[in-house]
Amino acid sequence: METKDLGDAQAGASPAPTSGSVPLGPPTADAGQKPQGAEATSSPVAGASRPRSKARGRRQVKEHKNSSQASTSAKTTPPDLLAKKAGVLMHFMLEKFKMKEPIRKIDMLKIVRKMFKAQFPEILKKATDRIELVFGLELKEVKPNGYSYTLVSKEGLAKDGVLGSTLEVPKNGLLMPLLGVIFLNGNCASEAEIWEFLNVLGIYDGKTHIIFGEPRKFITEELVQEKYLVYRQIPDSDPLSYEFVWGPRAHAETSKMEVLEFVAKINSTDPSAFPFHYEEALRDEEERAKARSAGKAHAAAKATAHPKVPPSDPSSPQ
């Protein structure tokens, strides 16, 4: 199970990016390297020893390699390896959520394996943080004993995600990350850039996802039909290419500042860490404020010009 799930979730378990990067950067290339034990040295004297001495020598070499590996594993675990374990655990929890089964701590420990038991709290936090940010779900105890959990829709999801979405939870959790990628790429992102980002999350074109189903259909049809995204041809592109921009509902129900705050949260930083986009988001906030003020002034003027007259009582004398 672990080998299979690691292949599915490895990309989604990438370590948190540094400040100022596109959200959720790809994992490092050398994450899969294993620690090497000390190799046995050959000696002419050892070759001349009796068979029993050779056997004892081989045992000593084996014990030396085992102790070397044990001492290596006892050191601080590389962050990339913990991120991969978090990806495996995340996939396991989503499977349980899909099947509406409780998530038991004993099963999570089996997924993580004994050698990472000490790092389990950190791995669990990485997995739950990613599930909360991308899918809008949070981990809750079924009973107040810490042994059984379930994933539920995050309280106040509207504050962190797009308001008014009719998409089923947790599908609507992917909206903010997608809007963030589009915003950070100059308010339009090519199809290739979108899929590059989705691959980091473990979402691949043509591969059914446990939450989103067929991802291409979900993004190019559902999100477009909901008017959160616009999928359009790039002018004069050869070969023919497409890009995504914000749809009218995205502009109406969220703002560039809210999306930038979401991106900053993913990067564990502040929106001002993205100076260019922060200035653009501030200008957008000013324009929205002016539009709201103009709208209120227009409504007030219209109400003054056409005051509401209560209907007359037909029984009253004229």
TrEMBL record:
Q: Which SMART domains match?
A: MAGE
Q: Which GO terms describe its biological process?
A: negative regulation of transcription by RNA polymerase II
Give start-end positions of Pro residues composition bias. 308-318
MAGE domain spans which residues? 82-281
Q: Residues annotated as region Disordered?
A: 1-79, 285-318
What InterPro entries would the database entry show?
A: MAGE, MAGE_WH1, MAGE_WH2, MHD_dom
| Gene3D superfamilies documented for this protein | MAGE homology domain, winged helix WH1 motif, MAGE homology domain, winged helix WH2 motif
The cellular component terms of Gene Ontology attached to this UniProt record, alphabetical and capped at eight, are: nucleus
Composition-biased stretches (Basic residues):
51-62
Skewed-composition ranges (Polar residues):
67-76
Q: Highest taxon of the source?
A: Eukaryota
The signal sequence is: none
Output compositional bias ranges, type Low complexity: 292-304
Q: Protein name, please?
A: MAGE domain-containing protein
Native organism: Ovis ammon polii
